[in-house]
Amino acid sequence: MLVWSRSGRLVLWLLFALIFGVLFLAPLAVILLSSLSDQWNGVLPNGLTTEHYTDVIRGSAWNSVKASLITGFLASALALVSGTWAALSLRLQGHALKRLLGLLFFIPSAVPSVSVGLGLLVAFSHPPLLLNGTVAIVMIAHFVLISAFTFGNVSAGLARLSPDFEQVASSLGARPAYRLWHVTLPLLAPYLVAAFGLSFALSMGELGATVMVYPPGWVTLPVSIFSLTDRGDIFAGAALTMILVAATLVLLLGLERVTARATGS
Amino acid sequence: MSDAIAIRAPMAKVSLGKFWIVPPAALLALLFFYPLALIARQAFLDDSGVANAAEIIRVLHSRFFLNALINTVTISVSATAGCLIVGLVLALILAFVPFPGSGFIARLIDTFMALPTFLVTLAFTFLYGSAGMLNAGLMETFSLPLPPVDFLYSTWGVVLAEVTVYTPFILRPLLAAFSLVDRGQIEAASVLGARPFRIVRQVILPAAIPALIAGGSLCLLLTVNEFGIVLFIGAKGVITLPLLIYGKAIQESAYQIACIIAVINIALSLGLFGLYRFAAGRLGA
């Protein structure tokens, strides 16, 4: 304990509550409140209603939820396979190449998402690789942006893995493929689930690259929310944002429970 | 595929194993590095494939580019400074003056990292917008004719939103660093009569510097690249480099100008990424 006096601690806790309340709690609370409010002209809403939710659900919201979930799932699944593959095969490389390639796999996370979208537009707008205007280009944009995070998570998990299990398996005569499937991957499973959850959450909230490349029929949740608020329909935007937050949190909590059960903790 | 087997296996097998990296690397090259190279190509060459420096120089001297660059740097540096201060205060209290439920609060702030960034901007519209709660409250209380608080649609609105969104990225490495600080040392210093401020300065801060540098450079990178917050605030005077790229490419279909700005933005981001890797590498050592 750094501060011994009771009053000193109380002052610090009040300071914490103030910062936490203003910066983190108030935005979430106010989004929730506005998504439920009838009209809002004063300090507090004039009345409460669930109208905005029924409106957005009756509107195109369901299509957006579907587009976001499918994009998130496919992009995260591909990123998981490719990231795990990269992290595992990187272990077979020499030291210098391992460092260089490891760095290259991280670079997509450093490049602004709008530029990733711009690059895809420039590269895939002409035959033979004509993807502009298709759903595939949205998936690719999301895959590129989240691939570094899955790679990073799996690499970190791999670094923490004790090499003993694998060595015992191979000294008992397990072939590389058998060892990979029955020893390494099961040990990595918690990190794989965590990586998948993080990628999915990032994909659900992705905006910069998506607004560059999305075709008219595939409007993800963030793009939908932006077009609602841009039109001045901020209450419907708030309702759709709450749906996005709820979907993301349910997904993350669900995956956390799966991981907890798998590791037996 | 551990090192143990690699040593025992014949040479031919070792070199075969090295080829496993090819599929994911090729995928990334096609979907990421090839488009990146094309951005650079389109920035430096005109339609007939001839190097064209005139357009680049024109963009670099244009008012819209210089404004966006200045905005991007100002917002990024101010937001990072804000994140460092707020993150340090929150982390110090969470780690050294804990209260019941502080662990839960730390995890709650952590989940903020998974939420979309524009959420905060949307919330700020309701809180600090011209018809928001704060302004409505002040106007009612002091019977003012006009909304008195008017910072949201300026650089400072973006900065405040980014401080909220990116403080968790400072908090996490700081809490990890603080968990390694020897509590006995703090208690000893405090028993010997050192005041809390002095303990923070002489014992805790030195342990936190690597985490502050790593978290700070990550914040600089993320705030330079931030798009959603600036787009949602939608203030005409607050255009940053990513927003300018979006505007030029999608709204004006001026792809070459967009590519020139993208090259500069990417170079800036990669520089900050290098700084972050360097700082994080030293943190790990």
TrEMBL record, chain A:
<dbReference type="GO" id="GO:0055085">
    <property type="term" value="P:transmembrane transport"/>
</dbReference>
<keyword id="KW-0472">Membrane</keyword>
<dbReference type="GO" id="GO:0005886">
    <property type="term" value="C:plasma membrane"/>
</dbReference>
<feature type="transmembrane region" description="Helical">
    <location>
        <begin position="100"/>
        <end position="124"/>
    </location>
</feature>
<protein>
    <submittedName>
        <fullName>ABC transporter permease subunit</fullName>
    </submittedName>
</protein>
<feature type="transmembrane region" description="Helical">
    <location>
        <begin position="188"/>
        <end position="214"/>
    </location>
</feature>
<keyword id="KW-1003">Cell membrane</keyword>
<dbReference type="InterPro" id="IPR000515">
    <property type="entry name" value="MetI-like"/>
</dbReference>
<feature type="domain" description="ABC transmembrane type-1">
    <location>
        <begin position="65"/>
        <end position="253"/>
    </location>
</feature>
<comment type="similarity">
    <text>Belongs to the binding-protein-dependent transport system permease family.</text>
</comment>
<keyword id="KW-0813">Transport</keyword>
<feature type="transmembrane region" description="Helical">
    <location>
        <begin position="130"/>
        <end position="151"/>
    </location>
</feature>
<keyword id="KW-0812">Transmembrane</keyword>
<dbReference type="InterPro" id="IPR035906">
    <property type="entry name" value="MetI-like_sf"/>
</dbReference>
<dbReference type="Pfam" id="PF00528">
    <property type="entry name" value="BPD_transp_1"/>
</dbReference>
<feature type="transmembrane region" description="Helical">
    <location>
        <begin position="67"/>
        <end position="88"/>
    </location>
</feature>
<keyword id="KW-1133">Transmembrane helix</keyword>
<feature type="transmembrane region" description="Helical">
    <location>
        <begin position="12"/>
        <end position="36"/>
    </location>
</feature>
<feature type="transmembrane region" description="Helical">
    <location>
        <begin position="234"/>
        <end position="255"/>
    </location>
</feature>
<keyword id="KW-0997">Cell inner membrane</keyword>
